[in-house]
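Issue: ligand-bound run for adenosine-5'-diphosphate - logging full I/O for the record.

Environment: standard queue, default settings, no custom constraints.

Inputs:
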Amino acid sequence: MSESEKKVILVTDEGIRTDGRKVDELRPIKLEVGVLSRADGSAFIQQGGNKILAAVYGPRELHPRHLALPDKAYLRCTYRMATFSVDERKSPAPSRREIELSKIIKEALEPALFLEYFPNSVIDVYIQVLQADGGTRCASVTAAALALADAGIPMRDLVTACAVGKADGRIILDLNDIEDKEGDADIPIAMMPQLKRITLLQMDGHLTEKEFQEAINLGINGIMRIYEMQKRALREKYLKIREEVVGAEKSEPKAKNNENTNESKSKGDEKE
Ligand code: ADP
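Outputs:
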């Protein structure tokens, strides 16, 4: 496409993007752990316009049984977009894209899990995209890793993901929907941040070797920032539980004291 045919300016000469971000800026991210009480582990991520829920069940008995693996748990990831998650109603039937994304999300998470501890069983990871705004596979990996940790699945490390790309000749971090569709390149990256091992790397578009190197460095930089948010979200959940336990312990003797006071009061009343 020639420059004159190009409709949208994604990055201005000053380096400002359509949503006002700088080229190396992440979208606002909100992470919450333990949002579903029925699941063994769960997490919610809001990253820009993306709103995604991840729920983990298991390890549990696997059906159909013939899928069972004798030496490790079977990790089953199911990525789905809600019919109302995009502007035009999405068909509720699983699309080829959803099947592909389920597979690559599974492959991004698997290296971090000690699946060998649970032979013949299944760990189910359900990912539901409630609102999509570009980069849902990366946001899904980030949320699913938190949900797995919340479920208490033994892990070597968390997994964190973020996309980088190129638009108007600039390398940009954390692409939104329009940048994903109209930009020149899109590279989703997932990695185990402590172990520094990349578990997902895809590329759509063209980059020179130098641009690719710059993109990977920027992507890793973004991943490390999201990783800090993941750890904070996990800590927040357990701090909340601790506060509840400590609060309950503190109020217990009080309740007993109250009982005693009530008792003596009623005894006093009797005397009167
Ligand atoms: P990712 O969400 O990981 O970037 P894609 O590159 O396939 O995956 O999709 C880019 C974006 O395109 C999605 O985040 C979503 O906003 C949009 N999109 C995906 N599927 C549809 C669809 N069926 N209808 C409309 N928009 C869609």
